[in-house]
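User: Please fill in residues for this 356-position structure.
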């Protein structure tokens, strides 16, 4: 069966529980499928029992409740209409806490309006397990009293990569750094960013959470491009690196955090990928076009661990040999548009989705 080139689109609205009920009904099969396979896919790279995972779920619930009762109420709505228990939905939000040494390879960039031909832009290749594709949708939420948001996401997550109606665009990278067993799951702070209207608001949404894991969040904002290197204790903001451009791969760049890199030597070609994306975008000349951004995300230097990632030949020595660029995304934050390739962008076309 041929995979469609366009993701299924879902739109929901209203107060938290009703919004969740609409989502659970519209994406029932994707939510159920994702919940059924999530722990199995985690166990391809690290062994953890269901009993241990559910212990972590129970201990996480109070952290979620403290951070945002409304987000938890939305998940209760999803559980109600999808038939997937709330605890299983929380397990989806904490999968990355079960594998703290995950070796991701995402490459991302954010450009200021004067640098990109189409206004403020943020984009990346999402390098991950291709088995997650069937559960991925483009989801628009219009919550009462808060900005609308559009995400490319596995159904059941409280938020993921995307944009909001206030001109904020967001992409995500793994950041190897120390973690701790419990805290507010990463996806809830991401949702908090989508409820913000400015860079300061985005930083505050992350900073107010007691976090379990580190992460990298790259943004297009009304105040310009920025990157948040998030540890469990601090949020470090990286701004324009020259020429209206911010780029990031999978190593710490803030001077206070760079010593952490010595403890995480395997960074999936992070340094070469960072140098490569910088070269491709800085050498473009003039306002960087959408087509130039697409070509950069198709780049195969250092294949297969290139910007456009493909499976490796080392299935016996590389736990993540099967990971690929599951999708590629370019977000026009001001225009409220996402351009998405479903699969490696070197062989799959970009389709356009609009929030408006």
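Assistant: Residues filled in for all 356 positions:
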């Amino acid at each position: 069966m041929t995979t469609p080139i366009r993701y299924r689109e879902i739109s929901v609205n209203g107060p938290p529980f009703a919004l969740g009920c609409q989502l659970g009904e519209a994406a029932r099969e994707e939510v159920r499928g994702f919940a059924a396979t999530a722990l199995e896919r985690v166990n391809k790279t690290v062994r953890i029992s269901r009993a241990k995972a559910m212990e972590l779920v129970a201990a996480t619930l109070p952290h979620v409740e403290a951070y945002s009762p409304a987000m938890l109420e939305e998940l209760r709505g999803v559980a109600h209409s999808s038939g997937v228990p709330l605890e299983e939905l929380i397990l989806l939000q904490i999968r990355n806490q079960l594998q703290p040494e995950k070796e991701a390879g995402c490459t991302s960039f954010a450009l200021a309006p004067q640098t990109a031909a189409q206004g403020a832009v943020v984009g990346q290749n999402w390098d991950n397990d291709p088995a997650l594709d069937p559960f991925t949708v483009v989801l628009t939420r219009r919550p009462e009293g808060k900005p609308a948001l559009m995400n490319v996401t596995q159904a059941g997550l409280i938020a993921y990569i995307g944009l909001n109606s206030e001109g904020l665009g967001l992409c995500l990278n793994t950041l190897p750094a120390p973690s701790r067993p419990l805290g507010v799951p990463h996806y809830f702070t991401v949702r908090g960013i989508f409820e913000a209207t400015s860079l300061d608001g985005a930083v505050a949404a992350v900073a107010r959470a007691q976090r379990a894991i580190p992460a990298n969040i790259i943004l297009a904002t009304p105040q310009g491009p920025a990157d948040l290197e998030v540890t469990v204790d601090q949020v470090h903001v990286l701004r324009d690196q020259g020429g209206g451009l911010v780029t990031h791969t999978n190593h710490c760049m803030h001077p206070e955090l760079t010593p952490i890199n010595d403890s995480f030597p395997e960074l999936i070609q992070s340094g070469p990928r960072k140098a490569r994306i910088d070269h491709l975008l800085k050498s473009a000349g003039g306002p960087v076009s959408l087509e130039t951004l697409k070509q950069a995300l198709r780049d195969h230097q250092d294949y297969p661990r290139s910007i456009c990632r493909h499976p490796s030949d080392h299935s016996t020595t590389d736990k993540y040999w099967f990971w690929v660029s599951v999708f590629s995304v370019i977000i026009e934050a001001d225009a409220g548009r996402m351009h998405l390739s479903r699969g490696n962008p070197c062989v799959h076309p970009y389709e356009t989705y609009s929030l408006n």
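For context: DSSP finds nine helices and 14 strands in the chain.
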